[in-house]
Amino acid sequence: DAGITQSPRHKVTETGTPVTLRCHQTENHRYMYWYRQDPGHGLRLIHYSYGVKDTDKGEVSDGYSVSRSKTEDFLLTLESATSSQTSVYFCAISESTGPYNEQFFGPGTRLTVL
Amino acid sequence: GNSVTQMEGPVTLSEEAFLTINCTYTATGYPSLFWYVQYPGEGLQLLLKATKADDKGSNKGFEATYRKETTSFHLEKGSVQVSDSAVYFCALSEGTGNQFYFGTGTSLTVIP
User: Fold this and answer.
1) CB atoms B46 and A106 under 8 Å
2) pLDDT tens digits, residue range A11-40?
3) What is the phi-psi region of residue B42: left when phi exceeds 0, alpha when psi lies from -120 to 50, beta otherwise?
4) What is the pLDDT of residues B2-18, one digit of tens each?
C-alpha cells in the first residue's frame, strides 16, 4: 500500500469555523491531490499540487485553499466551513503526470459541518 | 470535455453470478482508462487499467477492455464472491496534467 495518511479521519465542526485537513505521504511523489466524494457525484477534484509551493485549482475549488510547504505534506483548509462542505475528503498522490500514471489514495477524512 | 458515465446502482448479485458494470466515456484525446474499487470505510484502490485502444486490463478475476469504437470500458467478472462487495469507480486520465475524471460509482453487493 502507498504510504498515505490523512488526519483527522473524522471531524465534526460548526458552520463558520476554520478547518484544516492534512495529507502526509512517505512515497516522495511529486503530485498530490485533494478530492471530495459525494453521493451522485463520484470524486471531484478540489485542488492539486505539482511541487512544493506549486498548486492549482480543480473543478470545485471555491471555499477551499491549499498549501504545500514540504514534499510530504499537503494541507486543505476550509476558511469558513459551510454545511455544503460536509463530505468525505480524499487525498491522492502520483509519481508523475501523463495518462499512464495511476493515482494512489489515502483512507479519507469524513467531515461534518453542522 | 472529458467525462465518464457509469451504470446506475446499486447492483445485487448472488455469489458466483456473472458481473458486468457498464462504463462509457467522452474524451477529447486519447485517454487512459481505470477501474478503482472502494471497500467500506477505505480509500480507492486501483483495480485495473488500460492505456490504449484494445488493451485489456485484468486483476483478481476482473477484466475490462478499452473499446475506442464504442467509447466503453465495461468491467466484468465471471464469478463474483461476497468479498467483491464494494463500490466500483470508472475513471479516465488524459493529457499531461494527470487529472482524473471519475464516474459516480456503482455499488455492488454480493449475497451468499
Assistant:
1) no
2) 999 999 999 999 999 999 999 999 999 988
3) beta
4) 899 998 889 999 999 99
Asked if A108 contacts A8 with a C-beta cutoff of 8 angstroms, the reply is no
A41 and B CB contact within 8 Å: yes
Partner residue facing A98 (CB), from B34, B41, B98: B98
Percentage of the residues of chain B whose pLDDT score is greater than 70: 96
Residues 6 or more apart in contact with residue A18 via CB below 8 angstroms:
A77, A78, A79, A80, A81
B49 to A52, A93, B38, B65: CA distances (angstroms) = 29, 17, 15, 9
Strand partners, B87: B38, B107
Residue B84 DSSP code: G
Q: What is each CA distance from B22 to A18, A82, B70, B74, B106, in whole angstroms? A: 40, 35, 12, 5, 9
Closest B-chain CA to A104: B45
Task: Please give the backbone phi and psi of residue B73, each rounded to the nearest 5 degrees, phi first.
Answer: -155, 65
Count other C-beta atoms under 10 Å from residue A39's C-beta.
Answer: 9
